[in-house]
Amino acid sequence: MRFVLAIVAFVLAAAMIVLGIAQRTVFLEPASTSVSTTVADDVRFAVIEPSALTAFPGSQTLTITGSDTVFAAYGRSGDVKAWLADEPYDDIRQVKNTARLSSKLTEAPAAAGEASTDAPAGAPVARQSTDPVGSDLWLQEFSGKGSLTTTINVPDGIAVIVASDGTKPAPTKITITWPTDNSTPMAGPLIAGGGALAVIGLILYLWALIHLRRSHGPRRNLPRGPRMPRLPRVPRPKSIKASEITGPRRSITRKFIATVPVLLVTGLVLSGCSADFWPSSPATPDAAASATAAATDVPKAVKDVPPPAVTVPQLERIVRRIAVLTTDADAKLNGDALAARFTGPALEQRLANYKIRAAIADYPALPALPASPLTLTLPQQSSTWPRVVMTVIQSADDAAVAPTAIVLRQETPRSAYLIEYAVQLEAAAKVPDVAPATIGAPIIAPDSKLLLLPPGEVAAAYADILLQGDKSPSYGLFQVKGDTFRTQVGLDKKNEKRAALPTTASIDFAAAVGAGSPVALATNDSGSIVAVSITETETVKPVDAGATVSPEGASKALSGVSATAKGIQSTYGDQLLFHVPAAGSSDKIVLLGFAQGLISSTELP
């Protein structure tokens, strides 16, 4: 019976080990699932729709070939389609309820390429670049020579645009691969269990051998048979030592015992080399977080709420690009390069600074634009254009430098984000609480009555305070404490300039709303952060006949006039950032930051 049990154990052990090994070899499922499609030869763009990217769970590995230059980028599906505008493209999506992809050419609208009827006859139609590389809309982009393979992890609502350089045909072969779960959680237990059962069978086998040897020993108290005649005596055979009998058996036993570690080690190595061999426990929160780390820069859709204009990683990339360009332009006084990333009051002030520095070598430059880190990001909630985003950047090199707040605007899907306002925050400024960057904030209309003062009226009210001081009707609406800009250019400072002027000349001051459009983004307290611009002018004229006015420094550099009997008008540009509380609030409007600079100086006619 012991031999039978040992044989059964050996058979079961062999079956379990073979089955466990088979699960990792002949029965092993593929480690990935792939689908492919082709793009029409003469199409310049292809779009992989969200249905194709999420046809199977898990991260997506894109393999794109078929052109000398390969470019791919992903972004919100609506942003990708907006960038394409009237361009024909190959629409790649999953065939419903199948594991296949379809590729269909989507033509441009019939009248999309025609000139607007409002344009003058014969006027050229301006077209923006068709090169998708470097667009601010993309959440991430990739490029390669001849072929491109990259892995992304994006949720539903994200599309991928594929192109060459925007002018040549797009790559013709696209393959999407998803990892599949081919783990065999029973392989490890089967192999380990088979090894353990083999050891048990070996023990049973040895036990059976020992029992058999003992059962063949001398028998006592046997019944006596008939007495046999005595035979002649023969020589006694030489006695055999016990060691000569049991020696070979011990040697066999040692060989069997020596195989036990080999079986155990083999089983452990084979079954313990991968977690795929064993049943897995439920994923921990940390594991789940790391598995989706590649998709953290993708905005989550909120029902009935427009998505944020940008994500934080997207804006960080945009700010880095602008900071590098600005640093180079500041060093070379390159206004043409600067215009690629600045507009409105921010561009006007920097260009004037370049002109002054070109004439006066030691004239101070404007504060450098930090590249990181972004300490606050407030994008507009918008799926249309233009789009606005505000961010605060702290200098990574010098924490003592005041943070810089910038307001960026994107006019069209193919336009770059341009800095419209760039101000230094006040030392005592406390930026109000705002919505998370993943949600964004709605834009407040310039004529909104929901604020203590409509955004469109803030600039005019503050300009009046700079001219009249506490006699201004708007004086009580704005907080005085912490407003260092008012002490630098307010009524008291203007009176000091007037008193210091010689009696042979007169000076007049004026202030008006600047050319920059007001930007207002909602805050959590039902108020708004408002960016506006003001232009202040100083007009100096000679009083006595024959007297002249001699501008100096920056005014002379911009006007090109050494002396004039007509007079000089100098214009300063002010960029201002306010927190405007909600209507009915007892709080006052607070100046958060400002930037000022001479932007023009001309001789009076």
Automatic annotation (TrEMBL):
The keyword Transmembrane helix applies. Residues 308-599 form the DUF8094 domain. The chain crosses the membrane at residues 190-210, 256-278. Pfam families: DUF8094 (PF26366). InterPro entries: DUF8094. Keywords: Membrane, Transmembrane, Transmembrane helix. Residues 106-130 are annotated as: Disordered. It comes from the Bacteria. This is DUF8094 domain-containing protein. It comes from Cryobacterium mannosilyticum.
